[in-house]
Amino acid sequence: MSSSQQGAFGMPAVPPRLALPPDLLRPCCLRCSKNLGKDPGLTCTRPNQHQKCRRCTRLGKQCSPIPGRFNRLFAGCQRAADASLAAPDDVALGKVLRAKVRSYTRRVSAYLRNVGTKPGQSREDAMLVATQRMANSLELIGNILLHMAHLPPKPGDDEDDNDEDEEESDEE
Questions:
Q1: β partners of residue 65
Q2: Is the distance from CB of 136 to CB of 62 less than 8 angstroms?
């Protein structure tokens, strides 16, 4: 392995993540994408590419990427949102946007309900599920390390609510 392919401590270098899938106009997580019809000016922002977006963090929810097969469909929703923002008085554009987002939301929700239940699950689907599980595990590990180091939880984490539930179950 050449030195250009090696990272720190002789480990293989990790290729940089793509910040924006090729079909999307702007980065957006799955949860934020489903709310574009209600708020055409919605922006899904992350402190960095390895953390949850601000909205998912505030809500204490999982922050998942849009499944790749729906990027083009969501890009159409983004274009409709841009058109709606450009002409806020045009009621028809708002209706088109809401219809596109409703259709996108129904299709992606149905797809996610069926991921893993069909024989011959695609590699992309399996990787998406595995990536989501790894992200959740890494977040849990980070929280445990912060606790062990006697450091406060990351801003926006509601870790205290979970601790109280665990303490009550330990006493029983």
A1: 29
A2: yes
Strand-pair partners of 43: none
pTM over 0.70: no
Tell me the per-residue pLDDT of 32-44, one tens digit each, with 9 for 90 and over: 999 999 999 988 9
Number of C-beta neighbours around residue 131 at 10 A = 12
Phi and psi angles of residue 4, each rounded to the nearest 5 degrees, phi first? -75, -15
Contact predicate 25/79, CB 8 Å: yes
Would you give the DSSP letter of residue 10? G
State the DSSP string of 89-106: T-HHHHHHHHHHHHHHHH
* Residue 6 to residue 91: CA distance in whole angstroms: 55
Distance CA 32, CA 41 (A): 11
Contact 31, 65 (CB under 8 A): no
Q: Give the angle subtended at the CA of 138 by the CAs of 34 and 9, to the nearest 5°.
A: 130
Is 67:108 a contact under the CB 8 Å cutoff?
yes
Please name every residue paired with 6 in a beta bridge, in sequence order, or none if there are none: 12
pLDDT digits (tens, 9 = 90+) for 1-10: 444 455 455 5
